[in-house]
Each structure stands twice: as structure tokens, then as C-alpha cells.
Amino acid sequence: MRCGTNEERHLNADNPVVSPGIPFGAHHTHEYVGNESADAMSTNISLAAAPSTCEKDDRSTYYWPVLRLTDGTGHDAHAEGGGLHGNVGEVLKPKSVEIRYEGSPVSNVLPMPRFLRMITGDPMAFTNNYGPNVRAQWGCSDQPGRFTTRYPLCGNATTLRGYDFASCWDGNNTDSASHRTHVAFPLVGGACPPRTFPIPRLRITVGYDVPPGRPFAIDSFPEEMRDPATDHAMFINVMPEALMKELVGHLNEAR
Questions:
Q1: What does the H/E/C string look like for 15-48?
Q2: Domain that holds residue 143
Q3: Based on the structure, what is the number of domains in the chain?
């Protein structure tokens, strides 16, 4: 799914999945592609009515913390989510953003319900002592398939961040109190856990041209110390039902 690289510079310190209705609730700045209206005050109705940077009228919102060059001065040096919360530096624009949906290796997938909300990764990994929700993936374009939870030094290669979302759904809920328990990751071998159903697997890969030798860091909650293991991403499915049906058909035919 082509959604651009946030040429519109849609940035805010909100989190419409985790902290709806609370402006600056993230305490760090997120970068968005897709739905052009996504912010703390978003509702299902407002998201469905808004334009999108994605092709095929996919109005979903996809977002993650910004990456900054920490030896520069940010546009938000004196703002919430920026310097006031310890996130100093110049926001680095993505070179590439890949939004990819994949099927299940063991069965057909069902359509995602509209307005399904998900988070992947643990934005509090540092204070949570690097628990099971950590899913940060950092890598370099010249070493495909190799990822770490630490900041990589890629030289002239592209710095990559990867996000894999859960692809098993409980069949009933579009959200949960933790924003996690209504979905699950597949078991070893690809099958879904009991009482869950396979849905398309979403993977986001974001690439950056980090100037060699320049220090960089992601935004985080102040107490998380900009730890790379805190990397995370969020998603709200606002695809028209016809588009989701078409996507599922292609994925199942490709099995």
C-alpha cells in the first residue's frame, strides 16, 4: 500500500489509539502517514470522512515516533512532545515508508474489522525492564534480514525501522483496555492461538538517510531515556470494506 513518506509533515504529540481525547498525551512526537486528520480528538466518524495520503482511498492511520538528529535544533524545542519533554533535535524526514500486508502461511485470512486499533512494541520498554512486548527492529539496508533492538550504525546505507503487528483477532472487539488483548501474534509455525482468527499481517518499514557520524535518537516518554527498544507503532484500520475485501481476496489467492 503506497501512502507516501509524510511529505505533508503530519506530526503531533497525540496518540489517538492509546490516549484519545488527550492533546499532547504521548509526551513525544509521532509521524503519520495515511489519514490526514489523525490526532487526539479523532473519532471513527472523523477518520472515515478525512482525506488520506494512501492510494485506493485507504483512510487508515499509520504512525510511530519521529527520529531526530540530536545535535540539531528542533522546530519544537520549546513545545510539549519536543524539547519540553526531553525530545531535543531536528526531526529527520523518512526516505521511504513501506506499508505491507501479508497473508497467513497456514490458512486463509479474514477481513480486519473497520476501526480495528492496534499497537506493536513497548513505548515503556526501559521502565518495564524489556518485557515481552518489546518488538523494536532496527537495521541497515545493506544487511537485509538482520535486526536489533539497539541503534545501528549504517554508514552510507539506509537506517531501517521495522514494525510487525499482530495478525490474529478475537473475532469480536476492535480495541481493548491494553490495546493488545483483542489481538495476538501467531504461534510458531504460523497458526493463530485458540479462539483467535487470522487477519492480514501488517508490516511497516521506515527508512532514513542518517548522515554518517551524526547522533540520532527516537522520541520517547521522558523516563524512557530515548531507548531504542521503546520503538513502537500504532494503526487504526479505516479501509473501506470493499477495499479490505479486495485485499483479503488477493492474499488468499496467493497462498
A1: CCCCCCCCCCCCCCCEEEEEECCCCCCCCHHHHH
A2: 11-253
A3: 1
